[in-house]
Each structure stands twice: as structure tokens, then as C-alpha cells.
Amino acid sequence: MNRTAIKERNTKETKITLELSIDGDGLCQGNTGIGFFDHMIDLFIKHSNMSLKMNVVGDLQVDAHHTVEDFGIVLGEVLKEALGDKKGIERYGSIILPMDEVLIMLALDLGGRPYIVLDVELPYEIIGNFETELVEEFLRAFVMSSGMNLHIKQLSGINTHHIIEGVFKALARALKMAVKLDIRNGLPSTKGSI
User: At 103, phi and psi to the nearest 5?
Assistant: First the structure.
């Protein structure tokens, strides 16, 4: 089974092409031009054990908002397409993940009904040139376009970098669980479709 897909989004604000392989090698190629966000995407791909090739051009002379949000949209679309009919996947993933003083609890469902609950406090508004409110913009776009139900709760922590990194690592690890294949699963729903 080849769980790979390519998606493209071209607007007046961004031009984004992503190629995602669910059963990858943890390598991320390319960048968004936003240093801190690139760091988060790189570790997300590493910890999910997927592979991602990206070509991203955004209107960074305005700010990072359009690039981050549109990246989330395309990443969700390419994940959804790569999953295909979702036969055999575990569907659910969850983790309590430590990142130094930070503890993140995260659970997700790839059942096709998008919803996000994000309960984290980010003390600083900017890391490098990255506005931390864009974490929520990325996650919402990713959730809505992939059809994922995502709940994130910060249990402890005060360092903004660690909190965000904990969220991305937890998302990666839970997603790695949810996309895992077990042929005994068939379609993981009593409804007959996801």
C-alpha cells in the first residue's frame, strides 16, 4: 500500500506544494522561510516518521499568517488524501508528552469529524520572528482540512518554546499511532464509512 499524496495550493498570498508519505523515513525537505515554524514542522515529521517534501512561497513581507495557515490547509489535505479510505488504520492516537518542564496531553481521532480544543497558555507573543498565536491558526487549518478531531491540554510548563514544541511532538506521536495499519481493523467504524 502506497500511502503518499501530493497537493498544491496557489493563491495571491501563497504558493504551496506538499508531498507527504505516511510510511516515510522522518525526513523533511524544503522550508517555509519562517525559521521557528520550520523547526516545528521538521520535528513533527521526524516524530511522526512520515516524509515531507515542500515547496513554499508566501507573502512573508506582509507577515507569516497566510503562509502558516495555508500550510496547515495543504498539510491536512495531503494527509487526508494519503490516508485514502482509511481501511486498517488504528484511527485514534493519544499521548502525555514531557518537554522539560512542560507536560502536554493530546488525543486525536481521524474519524472525519473536524473539531479542535486547544487549552494551552503561551506566555510570549513572539519567538524569533514567529507570532505564537499562529500555532492555533496552523492547528485549526490542519484539523479542518484533514477531518481530524484534536484535543490538546497543557498540564504544566512556562517556557513558550517548550510548550509549542511539546504540542508539535505530541501531535506527531499521536498521529503516528492513529495512522498505524492493522489489517484486522478493516474500516474502524460501526457506521461503515469514515
Answer: -130, 120
User: Residues 28, 120: contact at Cβ < 8 Å?
Assistant: no
1-18: pLDDT as tens digits: 799 999 999 999 999 999
Strands, sheet with 14-21, edge to edge from the N-terminal-most edge strand: 4-10, 14-21, 51-58, 28-29
Rounded distance between C-alpha atoms, residue 54 and residue 114, angstroms? 24
Report yes or no on whether pTM surpasses 0.90: yes
Element (H, E) at 83: helix 65-83
Angstrom CA distances, 108 to 52, 88, 143, stand at 21, 17, 10
Structural domains of the chain sorted by starting position, each given as residue range(s) with its CATH number in brackets: 4-185 (3.30.230.40)
Q: Which amino acid is at 127?
A: I
